[in-house]
Amino acid sequence: MDSSSIQRDIRDRLIIGLDVPSVDEARALVASIGDAGTFYKIGYQLGYAGGLEFAKEIIGQGKKVFLDLKLHDIGNTVEEGVRSVARLGATFLTVHAYPQTMRAAVTGKAGSDLKILAVTVLTSYSDQDLVEAGYAPVPTEELVARRAGQARDLGVDGIVCAAPEAARVRSIVGPDLAIVTPGIRPTGSSADDQKRIVTPGEGIRLGANHLVVGRPIVKAADPRAVTERIVQEIAAAVS
Ligand code: C5P
């Protein structure tokens, strides 16, 4: 993939998680961040509360949008759903890393600029959770590695993973896929419910192409100032 065109503007390496309950709040936040932020992630919370129309609105203003909808269904449904998302003009869309689903998503995005990101194993899952879900005992990290390899082979554009996994995932998928990592906390901000956090600079040095930051920006008294500081830290880590 041409990840360089997405990263040409250093601000694009920061994806701001628009984890707010309403379009009005999202609109106010995007306006307050202004040109400091260029790339926004819309997940279940806002997506199911008018967020898809809002995605079109901010794409029309020149912002990039990552739709974190984690699709997984029969192939035909995934393919047609991805085709609809591609028409919205989104830049990234997540799907669960099941081979049928990834294959269908890659077919559905054909001819568009949409990039598909695979979620290998949800980071909330332990080895025991996989057994409970009916998998034969398998260490989560082995399943992450297997699915990352399948994503690469099936033509997926990138992987979502925690920063501490980035080096291993990079060794599997090679240099061309995008690695997108949440669990980022600027020095001094609360970890919230994230267990394995790294700073923006560490995230970049561990091999992430894009960092997802939600609450440290969304809940800040001055979201624009925090955004600017994170972008500066990314720029320092890149140079
Ligand atoms: O507020 P915070 O910076 O923790 O937000 C991180 C964002 O990344 C949230 O939207 C969360 O759903 C998402 N995410 C995550 N961990 C994953 C996958 C996605 O935190 N493994």
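^ cytidine-5'-monophosphate complex. The pocket of cytidine-5'-monophosphate is lined by residues 17, 19, 43, 123, 160, 182-183, 192, 194, 212-215 (CB under 6 Å). Residues 1-5 have pLDDT under 50 and may be disordered.
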